[in-house]
Amino acid sequence: MAPRAPSVEVACRDGSLTYRQGITAGAPDTVQVSDRFHLWQGLSRRVQDIASAHRGCLPAALPPVSEAGPAPIEETAEDAAADTRAGRHARRLFEAVHALTRTGRSHSSVARELGLDRRPYASTPEPVPGRM
Is the pTM above the cut of 0.85? Predict the structure, then answer.
C-alpha cells in the first residue's frame, strides 16, 4: 500500500486507472483533475462526436439558398488552418525559407538566420503553384 500523503490537495493526472487508484490509496481526500492535454483531447472528441451525430440536422438549420445568389464556396480544412495565427506564421516561415534558399543560401545558413532547426525543411520540395 502506498504511504499516505495528507498535504496533497489536488492531483493532476491522465485518465489511467492505475494513477487514479494510486492517488486514491495514497491521498484519499485529494481532488483529482485531468491534465490539460487529456482535457482538450476529451473535449475535442466529444465535440466531434456531437457534430457527427447532428450532421443531418444542418441542412434544416441553414437558410434556403436563393437561385440568384452566389454559389457557396467550399472551404477546405487546409484553407481554414491557413487562416489561423499559427497557419499564417507557418506560411511566412515557408515563404522565407524558400526565398532564401532560392538565392543559393545553404539550409544551415537559412536556419540560423530564421532561428529554426534545419532538419524539418531540409528536404522540403519547391512550392506547388496555387498551393500553400
Answer: no
